[in-house]
């Protein structure tokens, strides 16, 4: 008995369903997601100067490696002497590290409070306590707000407070809604939704436990993106399987044999797709960012779990129900199968076949027009630009900038294990430095808070690094320095990882199709889709959405997901075309494949695009931008590239599309697809 027959057999199907679901339930409820202690360098690139400086801060004995700035501002006019005196008296109770600093315009007073390092939750709790204490200590007529690096970290953590639950519910609702529309059945949608939902929770447990065991870093966004990917890919696989199962039920009386046949003919495409995506995701292990490496591991585990549940649990679950599960559109033996019925995509195929060269030219012009915006993309978000909504830390920072010189709330930090006095003298003498002072010392480490003058702070930071290169274990860090290093590291990741992803995808397609021309063309179409999606997204960001820049991490992650997932739809199409071409020839095979897979791939594309758009429920710009780029790219791929461009290219090239593989031409001129 073959594996598909074992999975779908009358006697074994229930066991194939119950045992994996029971094991998954035990792991989800009994083991739970993995836990780890976060570090200060989890999201910083390995080996860079700011990362080394941040790591050196951990050697301070009191672990107060971050700071919050408490800002007191007059509700109207200037602060009175009595109000300033009351704030000065309250500052020690807040844990202030030094004297309060009145502004020159007399409307504000600030004080700096050290915050102990720890997890995002611990920092958020400490900042929230500080905010409550500051509001209680503020005299009448004075507003107290907390900003600074620790407050920004706390507000970022607040974004993810309950976010994974909201994201999961939103994703499940979107998937359920689109499945109901796709299947037009009150029952069928429940089966794939339950199977994929269990796969999602199991993937979260398996991925986080694996990362905890391997000491791989991850952050709050990792499991959110993982859920979106598992729901999207798992449902895509389910749509492909169920579509083929419906076709087989029109040819076979036994639903068990029909599912076995559907599984045999679907497994190759799903396995090839999943393998391509997993290999692509694992290239993120080459990233300089620890949390990006964690995202690659987590999502690779998620795809494996999704594919296993789609190819094992889902087929067994479906055959446990009768044909009635498709009601009211129950398939019966003798009905025309999809590839033989006059579907919308059958008509689209006929129109593409009339003028394939014009279709190729037209779609390339469209993609080229959408790609124009790529040349205008500005990368790199400031702290204030990271939030869709304005939290207290950002609002207070903007108010602070009205009364104090730039850099007071978030100074650049020089961290040194060398002679602090000598380093301080060098820092003060560096062009572009307005002021500098030793703010912390202990454990052989000193921190010099440095306020930079002028607008070209990046150049000043580079000068500082050059001047301090002669000192042992001395580094420049802080948010501005980290932003510079993160941008450099993102560029390095792009240059390193993108060619590897393309090579892996190309190699996988060559092995799958046993062809050279088709894989090269398919990879080029997917890259064109990515560039067009980036260009179109930038016009959307810079125009209606009002973003000044795109997060520097978006291009790589968008490329990975669009190339890996975009190849999915081409794999689904061309593997069916290869199957059909053995009887219909290359021309007829491609048209039959488009007719047979057009509906399901379009549904899968719309569903996947909608699922990634759900990332916008989180008020964080990077996730909203990533979701938008992937959403537009998937729609372009499913509706334009896979529907028009790839079939048109195949029709123009004919048998050359499959070179060096040859196809049967017995039905090349079949009247059905002439």
From TrEMBL:
It is a multi-pass membrane protein. Residues 202-320, 504-651 form the SSD domain. Pfam families: MMPL. The chain crosses the membrane at residues 12-32, 163-181, 188-212, 224-245, 266-289, 295-321, 359-381, 496-513, 520-541, 553-572, 593-620, 626-653. It is found in: Cell membrane. It comes from the Bacteria. Keywords: Cell membrane, Membrane, Transmembrane, Transmembrane helix. InterPro entries: MMPL_dom, Mycobact_MmpL, SSD. Belongs to the resistance-nodulation-cell division (RND) (TC 2.A.6) family. MmpL subfamily. This is MMPL family transporter. It comes from Nocardioides mangrovi.
């Amino acid at each position: 008995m073959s594996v598909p027959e074992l999975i779908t057999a009358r006697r074994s199907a229930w066991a194939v369903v119950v045992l994996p679901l029971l094991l998954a339930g035990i792991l989800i409820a009994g083991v739970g997601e993995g836990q780890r202690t976060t570090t200060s360098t989890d999201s910083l690139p390995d080996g860079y100067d700011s990362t080394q400086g941040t790591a050196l801060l951990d050697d301070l004995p009191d672990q107060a490696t971050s700071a919050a700035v408490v800002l007191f501002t007059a509700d109207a006019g200037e602060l009175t002497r009595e109000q300033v005196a009351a704030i000065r008296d309250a500052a020690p109770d807040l844990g202030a590290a030094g004297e309060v600093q009145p502004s020159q315009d007399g409307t504000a007073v600030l004080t700096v409070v050290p915050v102990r390092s720890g997890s995002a939750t611990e920092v958020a709790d400490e900042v929230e306590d500080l905010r409550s204490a500051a509001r209680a200590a503020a005299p009448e007529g004075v507003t107290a707000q907390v900003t600074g690096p620790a407050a920004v970290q706390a507000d970022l953590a607040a974004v993810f407070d309950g976010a994974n639950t909201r994201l999961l519910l939103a994703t499940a609702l979107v998937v359920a809604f689109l499945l109901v529309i796709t299947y037009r059945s009150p029952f069928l949608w429940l089966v794939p939704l339950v199977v994929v939902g269990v796969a999602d929770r199991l993937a979260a447990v398996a991925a986080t436990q694996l990362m905890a065991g391997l000491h791989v870093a991850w952050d709050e966004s990792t499991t959110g993106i993982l859920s979106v990917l598992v729901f999207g890919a798992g449902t895509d696989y389910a749509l492909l399987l169920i579509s083929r199962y419906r076709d087989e039920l029109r040819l076979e009386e036994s639903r068990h044999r029909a599912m076995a046949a559907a599984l045999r003919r679907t497994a190759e495409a799903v396995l090839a797709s999943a393998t391509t995506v997993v290999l692509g995701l694992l290239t993120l292990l080459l990233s300089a960012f620890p949390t990006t490496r964690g995202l690659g591991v987590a999502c690779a585990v998620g795809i494996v779990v999704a594919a296993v549940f789609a190819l094992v649990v889902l087929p067994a679950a479906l055959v446990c129900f009768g044909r009635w599960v498709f009601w009211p559109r129950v398939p019966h033996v003798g009905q025309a199968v999809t590839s033989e019925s006059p579907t919308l995509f059958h008509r689209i195929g006929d129109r593409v076949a009339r003028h394939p060269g014009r279709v190729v030219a037209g779609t390339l012009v469209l993609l080229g027009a959408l790609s124009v915006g790529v040349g205008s993309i500005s990368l790199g978000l400031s702290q204030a630009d990271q939030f869709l909504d304005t939290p207290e830390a950002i609002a207070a920072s903007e108010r602070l900038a009205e009364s104090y010189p730039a850099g007071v709330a978030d100074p650049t930090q020089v961290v040194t294990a060398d002679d602090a006095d000598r380093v301080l003298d060098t820092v003060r003498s560096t062009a572009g430095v307005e002021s500098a002072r030793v703010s912390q010392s202990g454990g052989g480490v000193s921190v010099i808070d440095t306020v930079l003058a002028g607008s070209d702070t990046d150049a000043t930071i580079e000068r500082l690094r050059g001047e301090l290169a002669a000192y042992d274990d001395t580094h420049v860090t802080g948010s501005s320095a980290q932003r510079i290093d993160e941008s450099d590291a993102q560029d390095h990741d792009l240059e390193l990882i993108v060619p590897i992803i393309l090579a892996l995808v190309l190699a996988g397609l060559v092995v799958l199709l046993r062809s050279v021309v088709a894989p090269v063309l398919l990879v080029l179409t997917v890259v064109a889709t990515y560039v067009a999606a980036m260009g179109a997204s930038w016009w959307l960001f810079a125009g209606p959405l009002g973003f000044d820049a795109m997060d520097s991490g978006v291009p790589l992650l968008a490329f990975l997901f669009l190339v890996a997932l975009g190849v999915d739809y081409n794999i689904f199409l061309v593997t069916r075309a290869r199957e059909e071409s053995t009887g219909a020839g290359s021309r007829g095979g491609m048209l039959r494949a488009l007719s047979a897979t057009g509906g399901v791939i379009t549904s899968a594309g719309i569903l996947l695009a909608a699922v990634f758009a759900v990332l916008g429920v989180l008020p964080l710009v990077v996730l909203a931008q990533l979701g938008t780029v992937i959403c537009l790219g998937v729609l372009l791929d499913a509706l334009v590239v896979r529907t028009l461009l790839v079939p048109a290219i195949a029709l123009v090239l004919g048998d050359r599309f499959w070179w060096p593989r040859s196809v049967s031409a017995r039905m090349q001129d079949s009247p059905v697809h002439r």
